[in-house]
Every structure is written in C-alpha cells, then in structure tokens.
UniProtKB/TrEMBL annotation:
Native species: Dreissena polymorpha (Zebra mussel)
Pfam families: EF-hand_7
Gene Ontology molecular function, alphabetical: calcium ion binding
Keywords associated with the record: Calcium, Lipoprotein, Metal-binding, Myristate, Repeat
Coiled-coil stretches: none
Protein name as it appears in the record: EF-hand domain-containing protein
Domain EF-hand: residue ranges: 1-31, 42-77
Sequence similarity: Belongs to the recoverin family.
Classification via SMART domains: EFh
Length: 86
C-alpha cells in the first residue's frame, strides 16, 4: 500500500494532490485499455472522482491514512498500478 501511495506522491510531500492524481491516471490511461477502468469518464474526470472519494477531510491533499482507507473501499487506486495479467 505504501508503495502505491509513493507512486502517486510524485513530489514526495507525503500527500497526494489533485495534479499528482491526474498524472498517474493519465499515465495509466496511455498504456492500458481505457474502458477497463475509466468507463465513460475522461482520465481527468476519473482522477477527480477518485480524488474526491479519497480526500476525506476535503483539504485538497490525500494523506497516506486517507489513501489507505480509500483503497479499502475502491481497489482501483492500487489495482491500476499493478501489471495486467498475461
């Protein structure tokens, strides 16, 4: 879980901001079949939805604890970083 959080936390601030969330979702959308996780959303809209779900206290930053809790309810946060089965 910490590894996945660190992938999102590009600036190593120990929090994830909306921009970082969008960067990861865009990167994943560039290399996988988009419909597998985006559905009808654009990458940014999907990232914003994930961000809103995870930012429990609505301060514009996701802490590791918020990330952990969100991942328990929405495994997409972690699963989109894992390699696809061959």
């Amino acid at each position: 879980m910490k590894w996945a959080f660190d992938v999102y936390d590009k600036d190593r601030s120990n929090t994830i901001d909306r921009h970082e969330m969008r960067l990861i979702v865009r990167a994943v959308a560039d290399v996988v079949t988009v419909e597998l996780f985006l559905g009808d959303d654009t990458p940014d809209a999907f990232a914003d939805r994930l961000f809103e779900e995870a930012d429990e206290n609505k301060d514009g930053k996701i802490t590791f604890e918020e990330f952990r809790k969100a991942a328990e309810h929405n495994d997409t946060l972690v699963n989109m970083l894992l390699p696809a089965p061959v």
